[in-house]
Design brief:
- The chain is an alpha/beta fold and 301 residues long.
- Helix content is 48%, strand content 12%.
- It has 13 helices and 8 strands.
- The mean pLDDT is 97.
């Protein structure tokens, strides 16, 4: 498996892992280590650290470096490690790529610049600079609901065809037509990865390469089985798992993410239900619903 090209090793299920916290808001490394082992033993294809689900925007530069070092040390090369490195100031992202301890990291996931709403040419130039600075391959991350702007299919394809060192995109626009155009026009080996758990199965049917999942923090074996079945074209079987998980998936996002998955992991005794402000835990009604759904899934055969 190690000898496979990276784009093949990143087909399937990547998990956007949470960053567990102690009650005092410090990083809970024992729980993070246990969660990493849980995901690896459940046969996910790779793990993404310091993403949205990892509450990366609330971590200091020192904490980000420490999480990366811990991840590489704990994973020990058993599966690929992807680290989130992004921002809305290109020079600062370039600095992070040159200063973070990325030795042992297989790729970086870099979010489209947020808040300042760059034009499409600005997005192209930003990611060109990121790709040139990164010591490892780059996966684009388009998530308009969080960034305030959308990277069009035309811009993504321009980057895919013209910029070396960019190997794929995590597409979380929810725009099927846009994602279809990327899949249809992409070069060979360029990954199109679902950024939304709930629409992963139809995107696999359209030719996507996998998912970077939130849900798989809680049920990694089940979710990654669904993705593998979809990649194999076994959609009748994959659809059974999709519908088994869909209500739980929706519940995780009912009161904000990653609050939902932190709630689920807390009822599963994987980590504490602690987030860093400005995020707070889900409301009691949602927590109760998540607990019920998680229990039902765990009991089903």
């Amino acid at each position: 498996m190690i000898d496979k090209p990276l784009h093949l090793r990143l087909k399937g299920t990547g998990v956007a892992i949470v960053t567990p916290f102690q009650e005092d808001s410090s990083i809970d490394y024992p729980s993070l280590g246990n969660l990493i082992e849980y995901l690896i033993q459940s046969r996910v294809e790779y793990i993404v650290f310091l993403g949205t689900t990892g509450e990366s925007v609330t971590l200091s530069k020192l904490e980000k470096a420490q999480v990366i070092e811990f991840a590489v040390k704990t994973v020990k090369g058993r599966i690929p490690v992807v680290a989130g490195v992004g921002g809305n100031q290109t020079g600062e992202v370039v600095h992070q790529l040159r200063s973070l301890p990325l030795s042992g990291v297989d790729a970086v996931l870099s979010v489209s610049p947020y808040y300042n709403k760059p034009q499409q040419e600005g997005l192209f130039q930003h990611f060109k600079a990121v790709a040139e600075a990164s010591p490892v391959p780059v996966i684009l991350y388009n998530v308009p609901g969080r960034t305030g702007s959308n990277m069009t299919a035309e811009t993504t394809l321009r980057i895919a065809h013209q910029v070396n060192n960019i190997i794929g995109i995590k597409e979380a626009s929810g725009n099927f037509d846009q994602i279809y155009r990327i899949i249809r026009g992409k070069p060979d080996g360029f990954l199109v990865i679902s950024g939304d758990d709930g629409i992963t199965l139809p995107l696999l049917a359209a030719g996507a390469d996998g998912v970077i999942s939130v849900v798989a923090n809680a049920f990694p074996a089940l979710f990654s089985d669904m993705v593998r079945l979809g990649l194999q074209g076994s959609f009748d079987q994959a659809r059974i798992i999709h519908y088994r998980l869909i209500e739980f998936t929706n519940a995780l996002f009912a009161d904000g993410s990653p609050a939902g998955i932190k709630a689920a992991l807390s009822v599963m005794n994987k980590c504490k239900n602690v987030l860093r402000l400005p995020l707070v835990p889900v409301n009691p009604h949602v927590l109760q619903h998540i607990e019920l759904l998680a229990g039902n899934i765990a009991q089903e055969k």
